[in-house]
Task: structure prediction
Amino acid sequence: MKKIFTGIAAVSLCAFASSVSAGTVEEDATAFGARQSIFHASLSPSGKKLAYVGTVGAGGEALYTVDLEAGTPPKRALAALDPMSDLSYCNWITEDRLVCQTIVRRKDDSIGRYIAASRMISVNADGTDPNVIEGRKSMRAYGNIYFGGGIISLNAEGEDSSVLATRGYVKESSLNTRLANQAEGLGVVSHDVVTGKERPVEAPDKDAFEYIADDAGVVRIKGTLNSNPRGYAQDTLAYFYREQGSKRWNSLSRAEIDSQIIDGFEPYAVDTATNAAIGFDNDDRGFKTLYAISLDGTLARKELLAAEGADVDSLVTIGRRQRVIGASYATEKRLVKYFDPAFRDLAGALSGALPGKPAVSFVGASEDERQVLLVTGSDVDPGMLYKFDRDTNQLNPLLPIRETTEGHKLAEMKPVVFPAADGTQIPGYLTLPVGSTGKNLPAIVLPHGGPSSRDEWGFDWLVQFFAARGYAVLQPNFRGSTGYGAEWFGKNGVKAWRTAIGDVNDAGRWLVSQGIAKPDKMAIVGWSYGGYAALQSQVVDADLYKAVVAIAPVADWRQLLEEERTSSNYRLVQKFVGDGPYLEQGSPMRNAAAFEAPVLLVHGTADNNVDVEQSRNMEDALRGAGKPVEYLEFEGLAHSLNDGAARKQMLVKIDSFLAANLGY
Result:
C-alpha cells in the first residue's frame, strides 16, 4: 500500500475547474440547490467499462457508459427526462448489456393521490435494444403491478447473461378461458438479458415481499407479511430459509413492525462460505447488532458486530455478488468494521493518502474484485468517484459527485452535545459559517425528517447553503431519532412528540446560551417530519424562533392517517402514530392560534409521502387565525423536490423570507 498514487489520473471524464464563485444568493442557490452530478455507478465484469447515472438538466437522469481502456468520452445510452419519472440505477450484467430500474409517478384519481411504479429495463451499452423485464400483461388481470421486481443475483446458475429477478403476479379472470393466471404474489424468475428467455424459479407467494439469494445464485430466504381481509398489511414479518440443496422452507425468524421500525432478526444476506444468514436484531441492551444465523438446521446464532452506544445498521458489500466484507454504524462519524482484512487495509491506506483523509466507501467492483470503484467524501468534500486497480496500485479520479460546488469554500460540521431541559445530553452537529467568530450569529435549528432517522456527519447541501449565507446551523438528533438504541428512540417522535419537540427547542436555547445565536435572529427550518417539528415548535414556545420554514411537513396526524387509509400500510402507520388526545395536541394545524412567528410552507403536488393537502390546509389554518404565512408550491414534484431549478427557487425564497423576518 505504499504506492497508492502510481499512475494517478490516467482517465478523467470531466473537467474539475469551476466558474462558480460564492457570493450572491443566486450563485449559492445554484451551486447547492443543484442535484448530484452522479447518483449511481457500476463496473463491468472485466472492470474495463464504467456505467453511471448522471443528471440531465434540472430534473432528468441519464445512463452514460464509458470505455475506460480506450479513454473515450461518455456515451448517453438511456434517459428519463420526464419530471414524473426517475432513472434510479443501472448495473452491468455482461460486458455489453445492463439492467436499469425506472420509477414512474402518476396520480390515481380514484384515491386522489400520486402513486409510484417501478420497472426494470435491460439495454445495450450504446442504448440500443431496450427491453422491459416484466411478465405478461393481460386485460383479464384483477389488479395492477406497481413493483416491477428487482435483481437478487447476477449471473445466476453460471450463465453470464442471466439474472435472478423477483416478479409480481396478479390473478386473472378465468371467464371463457382455461389459460388465465391464478397465481398471485411475489415469485422469482431466471431471466436472460440477452435473449429475453426466462423460466420460473420460485412460485408466487401472495404473502411474500422479499427473496434473498446466496452468492452462488441460489434462493435461500423468503420474507412474508400477511394481510388482513381488507388488504392491510399486518404487523409481523416472518422469514423462512432453506438448507443447502433443499427445497423445503423452514422457519428462520419473526419480527414485529410498524411503518418505520422492525423489532426482531431481519436477514440481509446469505454467506455461502459459512452457510449463514447475516442480518440485524436488537441485543439485550436494546441496540441493533449484527448477527450470523446458521442455515444448517441448528439456527445457531453468532454475534458479528456490536457498538457501544450506537446501532449497527448497515452492511458493507463488494462486487457483483454483493459479498459481505463489513458493517458500519454512526457515532460522531460513521465508522466501518471490515471483516475482510484486504479491504480494511485498502480503505485505511486510501483514506490516509488522500487530502483531508476523507471517508472511503466501496461502491462497485469487477468480477474478480481486482478493479474497485470507490467514493470518498467528508463534511467539506461532496465526494469524488475513483477507480482503483489492486494489481498496479493505480488510483484514477473519474467524476465529482457534485460538480456545481467546485470553487466554494465549505463549512466544517462539528459534533456537539447540548443539555435538554431534563438534563439529558442531546447529540447533534453544529456548522458555522466559514471565517466567522462563531458568536452573535443569525442561526437555524434544522431537525431531521423521519422521524425514524438521524443526522450524520458529512456533506449536506441544505446546511452548506445556509452556512454560505452566514447562518450557524444546529442539527439535533432529538430523542425519537434512530441510531442510538431502543431507549433513545422511546415511543417515537409522534407518540412522544413532547419529548422530541422539547429537545428541538432546547437546541435553540443552547445556541443562545452559548452566545452563538442572537435571540432575535434565530429560525427553525425542517423537511418532512423536520417540517412538522418546525411548525410544532411554535405550539410549544411561540417566542423562541422568529421565523419558521416547513418543507413538505405533516401538519395534522389525523389527516395523515386518513390519507394512508387507501394504502396497504395503513395498519402499520396507524400502529406507529397511535391514538389519543396527543394527536390533536401535537398537530400544528389544530393549534394555529398559538403561532407568533411568520411561516413559509413549501410542498410538491406529487408528494406520495406527505400529501400536499397537509401544507394547503396548514396555510388555510394560519390565515384563518390571522397569522402571517407564505406558501410556495411546485407542480408535479415529489417529496424530495428532486429538481435543481425548483430547489434553487426554494433556496432563494427561503433566504429572502429569513432576511425579511430576522432582519439579516
